[in-house]
Amino acid sequence: MDKKFCQNLKMMRRECGLTQRQVAMRLGVVESCYANWEQGRTEPNIDMIRKLGEIFQVTLDELINGD
């Protein structure tokens, strides 16, 4: 997984004032699954990436590539 994507996930989650658990619950995944995405151990599928964009209210380009 691209390191920039992992950093963006963490930054955007914090900017939204959410915990990993809160994001995971909104996505319907376990907290460890989401934590693994932030740490770059695993990667979300395209449906989850879309949902992340909705949660953080950003475009997919912003989520994946940053500003």
| Series of secondary-structure elements, N-terminal to C-terminal | HHHHH
Distance between the termini: 18 Å
Shape: globular
- The percentage helix is over 70%
Write a structural description.
The protein has 67 residues and is mainly alpha-helical. The protein has one domain (3-58): 434 Repressor (Amino-terminal Domain), CATH 1.10.260. It is 70% helix and 0% strand. It has helices spanning 3-15, 20-27, 31-39, 46-56, 60-65. It is globular and about 25 Å long. It starts with a helix and ends with a helix. The mean pLDDT is 95.
Keywords summarizing the entry:
mainly alpha, 434 Repressor (Amino-terminal Domain), globular
Quick structural overview:
The chain is built from 5 helices and no strands.
Helices, strands, pairings?
Elements: H1 3-15, H2 20-27, H3 31-39, H4 46-56, H5 60-65
Helix pairs in contact: 2-3
